[in-house]
Amino acid sequence: MQMNMVKSLNNALDIILRDNENAILLGEDVGKDGGVFRVTDGLFDKYGEKRVVDTPLSESAIVGTAIGMALGGMHPIPEIQFAGFMFLSFEQLVNHAARYRSRSRGDYSVPMVVRTPVSGGVKALEIHSESPEAFYSHIGGLVVVEPSNPYDAKGLLISAMKLDDPVIFLEPTKLYRLFKQEVPEESYEVPIGKASKVREGNAITIITYGTMVNVVSDVVSKKGTDAEIIDLRTINPLDESTILESVKKTGRAVVVHEAPTSFGVGAEVAARIAEKAIFDLSAPVVRVAAPSFFYPFPGYEEYYLPNEVKISKAIDKVLSA
What is the CATH number of the domain that holds 265? Predict the structure, then answer.
């Protein structure tokens, strides 16, 4: 069936609620209104107010309640309306959800999946277009996932619900309704921690994820570059082996992401390549990312975000070195 990402996520949540009696959705407007982007549309009517719970406007309370539910034997899926609002629950995630398995010496785990829209390109208001994946990937106890298409979104969400640890599930806002894809209606899983090789190539490796996967693919197609494109899908844990295998084959690498450049995922990927594949490189690794500055007002986002021109120049730079 052809689905956009909103539909595929809705389908995944429907399957999860159907198959797991301990699963519960909670968040602002997730019930009667079906969520700010309608990802939970129809689930309140189908499963009732005890399984799809409208909460007060308090991100810290939403995540804190979900942690308590998880410790009590449930498997909550809290939704935060926008990633910029998640910082209000940062203390709960970092000091409690991420540490509980270690703190209890393995006696307790916190199985929950925190869903939130991320990234920009839709001219949204301030703190509605954040890309916080590096914040949460820095914390060892949090799994961080960011799909780039409807098929992966459904499979990764179902897989995330099979883990006993907290998962930060980042959903690129621009991709919610950007395109449709063939997605099975039945349950299936996409493995957590395994990158996807979107395109085979021999001249250069381009590592990316989220909204940038489609942008990079378009650039490579237009230029006719013999590039291998890797979609990370999971930011933490990082699929290091797939990255290194590709880079050792091509000898050249570009990392592309929407989040700020400094201390970001691109820096981590470049560092691992430098540590473990530097003698296989024919040119330095180049990063294409946003400036090291918070997300601008809508009128300036086209200057802020990586685009086809910036990515094309980076490819040419690495190939000519």
Answer: 3.40.50.920
**Largest pairwise CA distance in the chain:** 60
Q: What is the tens place of the pLDDT at every residue in 43-98?
A: 999 999 999 999 999 999 999 999 999 999 999 999 999 999 999 999 999 999 99
Whose CA is closest to 14, among 33, 29, 34, 37? 34
Q: Considering the domain boundaries, does residue 255 fall inside one?
A: yes
What residues make up the domain containing 218?
196-320
pTM over 0.90: yes
Q: Are residues 23 and 143 in the same domain?
A: yes
Sheet holding 234-236, edge to edge: 52-54, 23-27, 75-79, 113-118, 167-172, 143-145, 234-236
| Residues labelled as active-site residues | 128
Instruction: Please tell me whether residues 223 and 144 are part of one structural domain.
Output: no
